[in-house]
Amino acid sequence: MSGALVDAMSRADISLDESGMWREVRTASGDAAPRPALFLDRDGTLIELVDYISKAEDVQPIAEALALTAAARANEIPTIMVTNQSGIGRGYYGWDAFAAVQAAVHAAVLAAGGQIDAVYACPAMPESDATCRKPNPGMLLAAAADLSLDLKRSWIVGDAASDLAAGARAGLQRGWLVATGNGKAEREQALRLRGAQFGVTVDRPLTELAKLLPACRTSEQQVNL
To answer: How confident is the model over 144-151, as a mean pLDDT?
Structure first.
């Protein structure tokens, strides 16, 4: 194992489950009542999209997303990273390279005043229809079990319709499509997910979402835009 992977595993509760999913809990939930969470995609959302990124030096954080993690931390809303990583399934890189990239991402988030409370990464190929791979909700459901989350009051932010679809299937309140990464190309497909039980926001800056976080934390009802 690389130094980055050994260091990551020494600092957090990390395991690979039976499906091969990376399951990393970085902060304890304790005995807290179920609480809302901010689910966040990584590539194209938190960092600039680089196909099959495997080197820490290629990490380019997106300022608006970093600021959102800081706002979530200030409002005591856990930030959960959920990321498809088929590059591992394809054999392009391994978990050691993933851990090195993650170390750079975590450093950028912490420097901005944010915190990633848990990380879930699915290495499955698109054609596998693995339960952990977005648009399936497996990573979100695992997070809910690990961290005592109230999914119906939680939101997901991503640059792909599949991110939002995972949120809808998990019973989340709303999905927020960013314009970075693949976001602009995914707009119409994302809007098709809008329904009575799942809201979809497009064409809005993440600064607006940051302002809604206090209401998301304290309200037992859905937060309307």
So the answer is: 96
Q: What's this model's pTM, rounded to 2 decimal places? A: 0.93
Question: Residue 82's beta-bridge partner residues?
Answer: 120
**Four-point Cα dihedral 101, 147, 181, 67, nearest 10:** -90
Q: pLDDT tens digits for 117-138? A: 999 999 999 999 899 999 999 9
Q: Domains of the chain (ranges plus CATH)? A: 3-218 (3.40.50.1000)
CA distance 23 to 132: 11
DSSP symbols for 84-150: E-HHHHTTSS-HHHHHHHHHHHHHHHHHTT----EEEEE---GGG--TTSTTS-HHHHHHHHHHTB-
Which are the catalytic amino acids?
41, 43
Residue 19 has a pLDDT of 87
